[in-house]
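TEACHING EXERCISE
Course module: macromolecular assemblies
Task: Read the component lines below, then compare them to the predicted structure of the full complex.
Student: A.B.
Group: 4
Components provided:
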Amino acid sequence: MAAAENTPRSPDDAHYELFVQRFAQFEPDLRRFIRSLLPTTTDADEVLQQTAMVIWKKFDQYDPDTHFMKWACVIARFESLAYRRKMARDRLVFREDILDLMAEEGMEEIDTRKAEHEALEFCLAAMPEKQRNFLTLAYTPGVKVKELAEEAGSSAASFYMRLKRLRHQVMECVESKIEPLEGV
Amino acid sequence: MKFSDLGPDEKNWIDSYLDGTIDAKDFESLQNRMAESSELRAVMRRCLSVDSGLASECGANGEEADAWLSLENPTVPEVESQSKILSFPRLAPIAAAAALAFFLGLGLMSWQSGSDWIPREESASAQGFAVIGNLFDPTWKDPKAGKREGDLLGAEVFHLASGTAEIQFFSGAVMTVEGPAEISVKSAWEATCREGAVRMKVPPAARGFKLHAPSSEIIDLGTEFGLRVRDGVGHVEVFDGEIAVRHNEEEEQLMKKGASFSLDPDGPPVATTSGQLTFPDVKKFGSRVFDEVRSDFDRWKDHRDSLAKDERLIAYYSFDREQNQGLIPNLTVPRNPEFDGAVVLAEPVDGRWPGMKSALEFRRPGSRVRVNIPGEFSAFTFSAWVRIDSLDRVYNALFMGDGYETGEPHWQIREDGALMLSVMVDDSKPNPGAPNDAGLHRVYFSPPVWEMAMAGKWIHLASVFDPEARVVSHYVNGKQVSTQEIIDKFLVKTLRIGNGEIGNWGQPFREDPWFAIRHLNGRMDEFAIFQAALGEAEIAAIFEGSRAGR
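Instructor-supplied answer key:
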């Protein structure tokens, strides 16, 4: 917890500006990277915040001429592992060896993630409104499928079935859009 | 490796991992597989990335949540059963509550009705290459696979045992075919005739339409020609224009108007004398179809005249154009002009028998037919022929009591295609959980009975409110699709109508457009209200007696 005692620099510091600029630029990439290591987006958000804090604290060690993302990924990987250990044993978190592999390989795929995200935006835009609305419902934070389904007099199973089908559809659409990129 | 290349186990594991429902054993299996396969890990990262993208792109944000909350009580205005208080998890409770309310309000949770009444083939045929036009005296090899006029054909085999059918390809080519026939539709531009007598009419826009016959391919160059295939041997006659014929993979041969030849399985076409064989005669076919429609229509008129004498009828409209176009007469016998309907904005259009009978279209938001039906009744049966073009509104009106006062009915279709019938139980008591509602009532929903693939098709809808037997039932095309009990709390025995309207709602008690605008985007061709609960057999008989075509 020694890091917590570090005093943040004053916001007018040029360093701080560089940090904000870099972090803002790479935040979406970093979020996707962390998400691939942890069970839920909520977990990922928490680790992202933690990572941001650590990056800021260690920012004077960062060499502006090197790749920010690589450096940030190393920190995010470490924070994810720490988060993993901290979490209750009954949570479905990847084993350490898997998490390590995922992080190592994921670091090389930052551009692929970007392409996937662009493809996803395209696929969502092309999707019928009803299906998109359903996804919105399913992905709204805090909406618990079970309660939602019970309330509507339906089975959670039928909700998951539909969500599953839609997600597969989206996956296939995304893959069809990024395929040409991967072929090059 | 792609997601679609994964095995079913792996797909299931990933799905339940994303949903947070994976059990420990499966999770262990997933991780073991991931440890072995870098490809699975790569697909997994992609899935997680897409999932994360969906959460950020789709998940409701604070602003949207605020927008939803600013709607005046968007919680299910007429759905008593769904308005219990929910407890939400700690995270983003406002967004969650707003999202739930929003979706319940919009009736988007169509997945809630587990049993889909809509037949599978309806769904499957939402996309097609051709549509069945006129049919004359058809019989089917497999009666279950029988077609009706207006049915879509996808990539499928069309078997006609006898009779004549017209297939309109979406390329513009029209095929008239006489049974026994077996036609395999490949696309809007391609079909195979394995058996049967066919006449093709191909307008310039559909030039290039390909018809395969045994061992040969006929490419239409804008023309009219006949093909007859019996016992695997084809004969072709060109009536107009020209066609290209190719035997197996050999060079094409052009055939001009007047050409007649047989398709030799072992060689190029052999010229024959024209006029020896008969092909479907489009003109004759057309006039036979017309005669049949005419007699079908006459049969309906007899049905109408006898139904009009049913003493249980409160009002009966067939929407036929009258001299005075502003009114549609109530047809009950003895005639009671007091119950005639006043047409507002609704437009006369073709009904179930085009050119013979008219219907009313309620496409414009203000469209409606006003009625005033005083009196007290002990049950309701509503019966209507409708042709829905789309369900644009959250609630789409069929027949609505104006003020929705105690005893008054609301008969409508929800956005997801579910039929709805409700009667106000007590307008002086609040509806639990929905203080903005007009009063205590319950809506009885059927499973979804309509979807976009049925747009433009005439369907018969009926709903019964039976306080004595304590049931509410819904029917589509003469078949019961749901029945629900009326419990004590929602029992109402004295039923009324008073001022009301067909195809819209006159006096919504709230002004939000999503709530208040309920005109039916479609047509209505016949509408009857009975002051009795008709049984299943009676509703089936009304459907049979009033349907167009067999």
